Amino acid sequence: MKNWPTNSSRTEGCTLTGALSVSTSIADGLTIIHGPDGCVHHNASLLHALWHENEEGLFPRIYSTSMTEADVVFGGEERLVETLHAANRLHPGVICVLSSCVAAVIGDDVSTVCDTAGVQAVVITTGGFLGGGFSRGVSEALLALSSLGRKGEGNGTVNLIGEKNLEYEAEANYEEVNRLLALLGAKVQLRFVRKIPAHAISSLGSASLNILRDPSLTDVGRALEARFKTPYLSAFPVGLGGTLAFLQDVGEILGIESTDAINCEERYQKNLAVSFSDLDGSAITLDRGPVTSHVLIDELQESFGLVFTDQGIPVRLPDPLPVGTAGLSRLLHRWRRACRA
Questions:
Q1: Would you say 184 and 264 are in contact if contact means Cβ atoms under 8 Å apart?
Q2: What is the pTM of this model?
Q3: Partners of 232 in beta bridges
Q4: pLDDT in 10s for each residue of the chain, 341 residues
């Protein structure tokens, strides 16, 4: 029996889509897909629909080389050259070139074409048919775009690496991380890559800490550390204890005393428990979706008195898991509505 879509991993999608979720978030950038029009239509429609759902009335700037059956037989490199020059005439902040499965299978040398076409471009390898998935596409895009960064002295700021641009709560999660950093007196220098102009990427090597969105980006964190000597944390904070540990870790790396920040956050968490005291003793059944955190479940039992049983109100942990204390608050608001329905 085939797996239901709800049981499939969110990282199993197209490599091309993963890379596009990054490249199209450069405000003045333009992305070329070297492949058939269908690859562009599918992905542009998907991105537009998700952005519209998130109340962002934008349409992704994506060009297609419009490969045909003849190009599959004889090669499509000439089409790529023509499209590069057409895109360059629009004077974008950066041109990203993504290879499709078709171009990868027939062996079009995208990197060499871009090097010899006289147009500066960032090439991102996204022939997912030859191996890879959505998360691989995100990593490949971040690694390729990091070539635009310049080395610099650590200035005490923080870069956020690989925010999930297609998730509904991306901005809320950013605000939560920003709030936590503010408790330490630290600031975000660069969101790599989310809603930024291309020239901002040049500051990538000047921060004192990179915070990865989640551990799937560890290879990116290591690459940036090797190139710019910037240490990294492997994920945004999850859970009550995870949030306090996050403050301590950030403080240690940046050389900031974190005791006051941790105490402040502990008070916030205690007030949160009081505000949801009406949930104490509520029987809920956790729908075992694609993600489960036993540590988070234990915290929800201990701090909020929730009772997990097979006979309770059905609720679900979101994928990805809620970020920080504020993310947990939003989760509990949803569960409270379910319990009162």
A1: no
A2: 0.90
A3: 210
A4: 344 444 444 456 788 889 999 999 999 999 998 887 777 666 666 666 666 666 665 667 888 887 777 656 666 788 899 999 999 999 999 999 998 777 677 767 888 989 888 899 999 988 756 567 889 999 999 999 999 999 988 899 999 999 999 888 999 999 999 999 999 999 999 999 999 999 999 999 999 999 999 999 999 999 999 999 999 999 999 999 999 999 999 999 999 999 999 999 999 999 999 999 999 999 999 886 666 688 899 999 999 999 999 889 999 888 889 999 999 999 999 999 998 86
Count CB-CB contacts under 10 A for residue 153: 9
- What DSSP string runs through 47-58? HHHHHHHTT---
Domains of the chain, residue spans? 11-148, 267-340
**Assigned fold of 11-148:** Rossmann fold (3.40.50)
- Eight-class DSSP state of 213: S
